[in-house]
Amino acid sequence: MVVLNKIYTRTGDKGETALGNGDRVAKHDLRVEAYGTSDELNCFVGVARLEAKGETDAALSRIQNDLFDLGADLCRPDMETDADAEYPPLRLAAEQVDRLEREIDVMNADLSPLRSFILPGGTALAAHLHVCRTVARRAERLAVHLADRDSINPATVKYLNRLSDWFFVAARVSNNGGKDDVLWVPGANR
């Protein structure tokens, strides 16, 4: 259970923050950038939910919770010491990636194959989901960069990769099953 009695602590006033294991790092540390971008993505998902209904809203709610799991995972370095930790760190699980894949398959089943790239837009929900897709890709790039430098849970990269695909397919579904997708016309304005 998380208990926040005081919101400001002044411990970050000199440009540092604490990781999940208590280590202090610069606020621009790559690990902080990675989990901070997943938090930014979570905010954009919250905005998308303003337009979502039914199962799409429920799926976005699950994704928001997963993104907090992902942030908790990324903020805790030293996976090899997990067994020795006083409190077992929360790690993203392969089942969360598998769920996204199942949901993508269900959403994609009734969509026509693409014959062009899609421009972000269409319905308000689709536009918001495209923003989520691009922020998820940025979070993924940061997580991959972090993985090159430090050990991280491989499920975090897989999840972010699948999540951007999920947002893409969900945007198509929100555009009247792809019928109202805004298609790119190469060289249209030459």
Automatic annotation (TrEMBL):
Residues of the Cobalamin adenosyltransferase-like domain: 7-173
GO term, biological process aspect, one: cobalamin biosynthetic process
UniProt keyword ATP-binding present: yes
Gene Ontology cellular-component terms listed: cytoplasm
Pathway: Cofactor biosynthesis; adenosylcobalamin biosynthesis; adenosylcobalamin from cob(II)yrinate a,c-diamide: step 2/7
GO molecular function, one term: ATP binding
Catalyzed chemical reaction(s): 2 cob(II)yrinate a,c diamide + reduced [electron-transfer flavoprotein] + 2 ATP = 2 adenosylcob(III)yrinate a,c-diamide + 2 triphosphate + oxidized [electron-transfer flavoprotein] + 3 H(+); 2 cob(II)alamin + reduced [electron-transfer flavoprotein] + 2 ATP = 2 adenosylcob(III)alamin + 2 triphosphate + oxidized [electron-transfer flavoprotein] + 3 H(+)
Protein keywords: ATP-binding, Cobalamin biosynthesis, Cytoplasm, Nucleotide-binding, Transferase
Keyword field contains Transferase: yes
Cell location: Cytoplasm
InterPro entries: CblAdoTrfase-like, CblAdoTrfase-like_sf, PduO-typ
Family: Belongs to the Cob(I)alamin adenosyltransferase family.
Protein's name in the database: Corrinoid adenosyltransferase
Organism: Sulfitobacter litoralis
